[in-house]
Amino acid sequence: MEVQVAPLRAWDDFFPGSDRFALPDLKDISKWNNRVVSNLLYYQTNYLMVAAALVSVVGFLSPLNMLIGGTVVVLVFLGFVWMSHNKDVLRKLKKQYPTTFVLAIMLSSYFLISYLGDVMVFMFGITLPLLLMFVHASLRLRNIQNKLQNKMEGIGLKKTPMGFILDALEQQEDSINKLADYISKVKE
């Protein structure tokens, strides 16, 4: 399957004034999750650029530790995804509590990296970009263009890098089901 890079969104759309940001409704976790997933898919190239800048700075300052840290995180992520596909208990945990699943990956990576060496590389080079992405995706209100673009890209979402990651975390299926429901309502 060919991976397609999502388009770079305009920076004034990505980070406008405070009028486009609001706290999520913490009582409705599914709505918050939908906002995060939609923003991760819509702004994925912008997030990649911000993360690449932060990783580059930390990698320049400590290249070997950054390489070790990145390798550990990727291997732990792949291990957790593999185990969750082979163990029903982990599959249910991943589906019901995706944040807990990601936190387990991050904590496992943290302990392995602290055993191997420099924890600050993990904190600034790996965790900070992920934290910034999550905070932005949680706080950024979706606009009409975001919603329409997500609907239009819905069928091909699994071909983007973020689509693959969200699919591995089993966060993609709900969006595709909602898209199918939306299309059937429009046809009626």
TrEMBL record:
It comes from the Eukaryota. The keyword DNA-binding does not apply. This is PRA1 family protein. Pfam families: PRA1. The lineage of its organism: Eukaryota, Metazoa, Chordata, Craniata, Vertebrata. Keywords: Acetylation, Cell membrane, Cytoplasm, Cytoskeleton, Endoplasmic reticulum, Membrane, Transmembrane, Transmembrane helix. GO terms for cellular component: cytoskeleton; endoplasmic reticulum membrane; plasma membrane. The gene is Arl6ip5. It is a multi-pass membrane protein. GO terms for biological process: negative regulation of transport. The keyword Cell membrane applies. Belongs to the PRA1 family. PANTHER family: PRA1 FAMILY PROTEIN 3, PRA1 PROTEIN. It is found in: Cell membrane; Cytoplasm, Cytoskeleton; Endoplasmic reticulum membrane; Membrane. InterPro entries: Prenylated_rab_accept_PRA1 (IPR004895). The chain crosses the membrane at residues 40-61, 67-85, 97-113, 119-139. Signal peptide: none annotated.
